[in-house]
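Continuing the series of single-chain predictions for the mutant panel. This is the parent chain; the variants come on the following pages.
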Amino acid sequence: MSIPTDLKYSKDHEWVRVEGDVATVGITAYAQGELGDIVFVEVDTVGETMDKEEVFGSVEAVKTVSDLYMPISGEILEFNESLNDGPETVNSDPYGEGWMIKIRINDISDLEALMDAEGYAVHIG
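Parent structure:
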């Protein structure tokens, strides 16, 4: 399973890519694999400032619905609108075109609590 080394990871299986003071967030290959075929992604929190571990949306798969958790605190700047028409992109390209939100980072120290690729690999066993 692919675990890119240039990302940070949450215990809730979100990944974070930092570019300046903006973080792009999605779910990991492990998470999408556990969920199965994703049929809908809902994020109605754009423009809101949220704390880490708050629910920012949900992802619906054929068999289940799962909450999406903020890996860091910040303002949600953008939702990946292409997921409205192609939610399956989360399955086919979870670390690329399947990204979910962009966050303006409130506290850069939040990133220190996230795992690196090696730590995440241990976390998922």
